[in-house]
Specification:
CATH class of the largest domain: Mainly Beta
Largest sheet: 9 strands, mixed
CATH topology of the largest domain: Immunoglobulin-like
Number of helices: 27
CATH architecture of the largest domain: Sandwich
Shape: elongated
Structural class: alpha+beta
Distance between the termini: 49 Å
Radius of gyration: 35 Å
Number of domains: 4
Helix content: 25-40%
């Protein structure tokens, strides 16, 4: 899907540098008490023997046995008994190098057995001889994270295909931060076959430890066997011949494709909140040196500004660095220590910010979240292990906002800041009030998750080079990311960066002038404008001139899997961003075409999109509004999702085309027609001929035949042939009575015949059958207005305006709404007055006239500033709305004159042309 996968926007080409893939290992020493080898198995252990050779599975790697035993005690123990067999040289490293992970700050590692099983009974014991190296792989050290986890690594000599590694080890101890509470997780499924999997939990009978299966695959019905002896309760989970789980690409962020087993002694999320309460004390003292900051913040005029400035101070003045050893894995350092060091991790910075806000009188609480799996906590038992991040919840002006002290680049009011935890399930740390997880969802989501790209192309003569003017705008998270990126770019590098994406689409492109950057801090919005020279912008193809465009800011918005049939959901990377793309092509002035705005809707439960295309005079436009509605697409819905994406891509097309009959005065290879009206007639005649041939060929049926009849009827109407058009649409609804478009075109022809009641019913029927709501309400509203039902018309037209996302199409609906309200003697609502603009883009000046901001003469002056066919088209519309204006002023004679001028323009495709004729009939004038 090239539309969805193309590269080319600044956002795609100017991301922050990627972090190193892996931090180098460093060998260290550990205390002698932290590791022992050759230690006997614990007396309580009941280890399983290794099952028979797994050669029959025919897989490169097979887990013959994975046996995990968990002892709940003052010093809990995890015992691992695992056997893996290799059948291909490519995976010999899986058994040749053994890795065991533990934290010597509070854990001890005991190696009980490491041996190679070979052939029929040969055992090579490496327990006492294999060299052990203790390595630090501080994953995330380059981001300032230090957690103290150590890897004990054993390199085994002479391993061969067919060998089995049999390993037994135990880890004793747990993080003291959890006190006496027991929490643990253990894997169950693997990407390779497992012959025998067993997990045993041994706990005192009096301890209430819950268990749960967690995973995004098929749910497990496996339950444990339960036995008790000597005051200990034993839960045993066992399963044989586990099939391998394929880790499919494009999984949602934080997905759990491999099922795991979870244990927790926390009763519920309220219990976890009470535990966390002590970690973030509301009485943690702030050092005296923060007094000037507090005083400065107190002088700011609003709580929003105070919170925003406090957040920015913590973000920028306290660098991010984490030393998570022992209890500091979860317990933040005191604000005085953090300030003294001038560094801290998420919980350190959150506690400091929380206390600053509280000192300012702003209610604030710590919040635990998961960056790795934002929705993961909601799938799990209540446990502190569900979280890897901390932020702050602040109550400002009656609304909860969530502030991340570890981010950079955030500016503006707190309600405009980006939110990296959108739709996450988080735990508010409040032992008194918290009872459950909180779903973090921004009420102004569509405003702060937005990416807009406008591209305006211009071609002065066929065959020449063209120009492109781009305007790209990022809001919220996108703006904050770009703000960090742009801070590293001077003007020359910015120009090279914005050119890089354009040049991939248009080889040989060059920048004109210097890109302009605007950082609107109050809106947390960044805009970049640039101009480019595009070699040979359009070229001849199949007798037409063709120009290609790409919604470049859609890149990365949709994940397209290699196969539609899969076992797991796919993620929607764009969620919850709204992506808006607007392309405008200014063809040479010799081009003259008319295609009224045509809107298509696409969507599934996971996304919605609206595409509007139009061609007016020499200007062609395509606008795409795409909104991700969900983070993921369930596996069973992926085929339908992909089908709808393909429909959207076909609708967008990616091309603007000019045909020979759309060029006047010999502008197209010496071929052309004289006037706009000539072109319209030629286009309609050609449409009648093309659709007629398709219909007469007898190869169409059902919906396809009905649509062809509708196309011919529309062209017949443009030629003034009402009766042939009426016959076509009657046949269309007879053939396809369940097709929305058939009833829509039936209504359109009925409207032109003056049968408003029937047209109203037809448009209503099309709406029920799935016609685009904005179009159906728009046309039904017009039918109701001319049919003498202004109250109902006003309601329909308001719905049409609200439903339309394309700004130009919305204004036309608002124009008719204004006409209707004028007849009702009602004032225009605020949103219509706000949309009116006497000097704005057409047709906003017409709305300004109906809003009383200008008169008809001033409107015509505005239209006169246009050129060529664009002026002719605008005049046809302007005269119609002037006629409606005079009707509202009870000036029938002036209204007739204006309607006659609208008809005289001969723009037969326009609803204003048809409606002007109907208004003249109503006024007692025979229409031309």
């Amino acid at each position: 899907m090239p539309l969805l996968l193309v590269a080319g926007s600044l956002q795609a080409s100017a991301q922050l540098p990627a972090a190193p893939a892996e931090t180098p290992l460093k060998e260290i020493n550990v205390a002698a008490t932290a590791f022992a080898r050759g230690v006997p198995l614990p007396a309580w252990a009941e280890v399983l023997p290794v099952p028979p050779d797994a050669a029959a599975t025919r897989r490169a790697l097979v887990v013959r046995l994975e046996d995990t035993q968990l002892l709940v005690a003052d010093q809990p123990v995890q015992l691992v008994n695992v056997a893996q067999q290799v059948f291909d040289a490519s995976v010999l490293g899986q058994i040749g190098q053994v890795a065991m992970h533990f934290n010597p700050q509070y854990q001890r590692l005991a190696l009980h057995k490491v041996e190679i099983l070979r052939g029929s009974g040969e055992i090579i014991d490496h327990t006492a001889t294999a060299p052990v190296r203790f390595l630090q792989r501080e994953v995330g050290l380059e981001q300032g994270v230090y957690n103290g986890v150590i890897t004990a690594s054993l390199l085994l000599p002479d391993v061969r295909v067919g060998d089995t590694l049999h390993l037994q080890y135990s880890i004793t101890g747990a993080n003291p931060i959890f006190g006496a509470r027991y929490v643990q997780t253990t894997s169950w499924q693997r990407p390779v076959p497992v012959q025998l999997r067993r997990v045993t939990l041994i706990a005192p009978e009096g301890r209430a430890i819950q268990w749960k299966w967690v995973g995004d695959g098929a749910p497990s019905t496996l339950t444990p066997s339960v036995t008790t002896a000597n005051g200990m309760r034993r839960l045993r989970f066992e399963e044989r011949e586990l099939a391998p789980v394929e880790i499919e690409p494009l999984l949602p962020r934080g997905a759990y494709p491999l099922r795991f087993l979870q244990f927790s002694e926390f009763a519920d999320w309220a219990d976890v909140a009470r535990w966390a309460d002590a970690l973030f004390p509301a009485d943690a003292s702030l050092p005296n040196e923060l007094a000037p900051l507090i005083q400065r913040l107190q002088r700011l005029p609003s709580r929003s500004e105070q919170a925003s400035q406090a957040l920015q101070w913590v973000q920028s003045e306290i660098r991010y660095y984490s030393v998570a050893l022992g209890e500091s894995s979860h317990r933040p350092h005191a604000p005085a220590e953090v300030l003294r060091n001038r560094y801290g991790d998420c919980k350190d910075k959150s506690l400091l910010l929380m206390r600053v806000l509280q000192t300012l009188g702003i209610p604030a609480r710590a919040v635990l979240a998961s960056l790795g799996s934002p929705q993961g906590p909601a799938k799990q038992l209540a446990t502190p292990l569900a979280f890897d991040h901390a932020v702050v919840q602040a109550r400002i002006d009656g609304r909860d906002v969530y502030l991340d002290a570890t981010r950079l680049g955030q500016r503006g009011p707190v309600e405009r800041l980006g939110q990296s935890l959108e739709d996450a399930s988080v735990l508010v740390v409040d032992g008194r009030d918290t009872r459950a997880l909180t779903l973090l969802r921004s009420p102004n989501r569509r405003e702060i998750f937005r990416n807009e790209l406008s591209e305006k192309f211009r071609l002065n003569a066929f065959g020449d080079d063209g120009e492109l003017e781009t305007t790209q705008r990022w809001v919220g998270l996108g703006a904050e990311t770009m703000r960090l990126t742009l801070a590293r770019l001077d003007s020359a590098r910015l120009a090279r960066t914005v050119l890089a994406g354009i040049e991939r689409r248009y080889p040989g492109a060059s920048v004109i002038g210097t890109p302009a950057l605007a950082d609107e801090l109050e809106q947390n919005r960044i805009t970049i404008r640039a101009r480019f020279k595009i070699p040979k912008l359009a070229g001849p193809a199949d007798g037409n001139w063709v120009m290609r465009f790409v919604p470049a800011n859609m890149q990365g918005s949709v994940a397209v899997p290699p196969a539609a049939v899969r076992n797991f959901a796919i993620g929607l990377p764009a969620f919850p961003v709204t992506v808006v793309y607007d392309a405008e092509m200014q063809w040479p002035s010799s081009v003259s075409a008319v295609q009224e705005p045509r809107t298509q809707r696409f969507g599934t439960p996971q996304f919605s999109a609206e595409l509007t295309r139009s061609f007016r005079g020499s200007v062609a436009r395509a606008t795409l509004n795409f909104e991700a509605l969900s983070r993921e697409v369930p596996a069973g819905e992926v085929p339908a999702f992909l089908d709808e994406l393909k429909k959207m891509e076909r609708g967008v097309g990616g091309t603007f085309v000019v045909a020979p009959h759309q060029v006047t005065n010999g502008g197209f290879l010496g071929i052309g027609r004289r006037t706009l009206q000539d072109n319209l007639i030629a286009r309609a005649q050609a449409a009648v001929e093309r659709s007629g041939k398709a219909i007469d060929a007898g190869q169409l049926g059902g919906d396809d035949l009905a649509q062809a009849l509708c196309l011919r009827a529309d062209a017949q109407l443009a030629l003034g042939r009402l009766e042939p058009a009426w016959k076509d649409v009657q046949e269309a609804v007879r053939i396809a009575p369940s097709l929305a478009v058939a009833w829509f075109c039936h209504g359109a022809i009925g409207f032109a015949r003056g049968d408003f009641a029937a047209a109203e019913a037809d448009f209503g029927q099309s709406l029920m059958l799935g016609q685009n709501a904005g179009d159906a309400y728009y046309r039904r509203g017009q039918a109701r207005l001319l049919g003498g039902k202004p109250e109902a018309a006003a309601d329909d037209l308001a719905k049409a305006a609200a439903d339309r996302q394309d700004a130009n199409a919305k204004v036309f609906a608002q124009l008719w709404q204004a006409v209707t309200l004028q007849r009702l003697g009602r004032p225009l609502p605020a949103e219509l007055v706000a949309a009116a603009d006497a000097k704005g883009a057409w047709p906003r000046p017409a709305l300004a006239m109906l809003a009383g901001q200008i008169g008809p003469e001033q409107l015509l002056v505005q239209v006169a500033t246009k050129d060529g066919d664009d002026r002719e088209l605008a005049l046809a519309e302007a005269h119609f709305y002037i006629g409606e204006y005079w009707l509202g002023q009870s000036q029938a004679a002036k209204a007739k004159e204006a309607f006659e001028k609208a008809r005289a323009k001969g723009i037969t495709h326009y609803i204003e042309h048809v409606a002007a004729g109907l208004e003249l009939q109503r006024l007692g004038v025979v229409k031309p």
